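Review box. Two proteins, two foldings.
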Amino acid sequence: NGAGGAIKVSNSSGDDIFNLANINTQISASAGNNLINLDNSGLTGDVNSISLAAGDDQLTVKSSGQTTIRAGEGTNQINLGGGGSFSVSAGSGDDQVTIQDLANSTLSLGNGNNTIMAQDGKHVITTGTGNDNVTLGAGIASNINVGDGNDNVTITKTQTNSSFSVSLGAGNDSLKVNGAGGAIKVSNSSGDDIFNLANINT
C-alpha cells in the first residue's frame, strides 16, 4: 500500500493476483488468468503500464493519471475509473470494458463479441469483427468504429456541444441516440440497419 513511488514487475507467469494502491505501476505478465486491482485514487499524476499475454484476465484500475493496458487474447474484463486517461488494446476474445466517471479513453479491441460501457468523457473506440455492444453516456466527443458483425451502439444522452462519429461495418446494426443537442455523423453502414435518433443533428 504505497504513498507514491513506483513498482515494476516483469516476467510474471501463472495465474497471478496483484493488489496495489497509490503507487505508479508497471506490470508485464506472461500467459495466465491474472487478477489485477490497482487503486491510485490517492495519487495525482500517476503513470501506469500493464501488459498481459493471452489469458482470461480481470483488471480494475482507478486512476486520475495515465494508464496504458495491453491485454492479449482471451475473455478479458476491464473496469476503469477515477477520471484519468486510459489507452486499452486487447486481442481476440469476448472482452468487456466498463469506464466510470469523467474520463478520456482510446480502446482498440480485437475480433470477438465485445461489450463496452462508458460514461462521460471523450472516447475513441475501435472493434474488430464480431457482434459488439457499445453504450455511451453523456460524452463530449466520441469516435466509434465497429467492425463487421451485428453491432448495437447506444448513446444514452448528448450535450449541446457533443460531437459523435459512428462507423458501422457490414452486418445488421442498430444505432440508438437519445439526444439533447449536438451532432452525429454516421458512415460505412451496410446491411439491414436500424436507426433511432432523437434530438440531435445528423
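Next protein.
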Amino acid sequence: TKDPDVRAWMADNGVKDDLAIYLHFGDYVDQLACNRTSGGTPMHWHDYWAAANQSGVRVQKHIVHNWGGPEISVGASADGHRVVVSGGWYLDNDQPWEPMYTLDPQAGITDPAQRQRILGGEAALWSESQDYSNVMSRAWPRAAAIAERLWSSVQTAGANDAVNVARPRLLQFRCLLLRRGVAAGTVSGTPVKDAGPCGIELN
C-alpha cells in the first residue's frame, strides 16, 4: 500500500509488507464476523489461503472459495479447509454448458477425508459484461446445468453419455422458462437448433 497512514501503522506494528497486511486484515475481519455470528465459519477467496501458504503463516480454519483450478481444492482440502468451488462455473464467460455439466469439483482428490471437505459449488455471474437487458440469457439455462451437476453423483454427471442424457432435460427446462417469460439463452448456442422442442422460433 502507498497510504502513508497505513505505512506508519505497519511500521509501528511490525507488519513487514503488503502480503502481511492482507493476512492481518483477513484475520481481523474473521474475528469480527465470528464474534457477530456466535462462532460461525468465515469464507475467503482462495487468494487468502494462497497468501498464507506463500508467507508460511497459519491462519484459522475458514471455508476456501476456489475460483481457480482444481489444484486449489486439492491443496486447501489437504490443509484441512472446507472448500466451495466456482472456478469453471462463471456464467459471464461465453462457455457452453457441456463442460460446466461435466466439471468435477472433487477432481484430483482421492483421499476420502479431503473429498468430504469439498462442500459443493456455486455459479458466479459478475456484472462487467451484463446488465438488466441480458442477465437472464447469461444465467439461464446454464445455471440449471450447474445445479443438476452439483446435486448429482459423480457417477451420474461424470458418465460418458451424461451430456447427451441431460440435454433433453435442459431443452425442456429452457422451454418452461420461455413460456413463463424468462428470456433464457439457447441451449445449443444457436436459435435454430433450439426452436423445435420449444415450438418457439427466436430470430
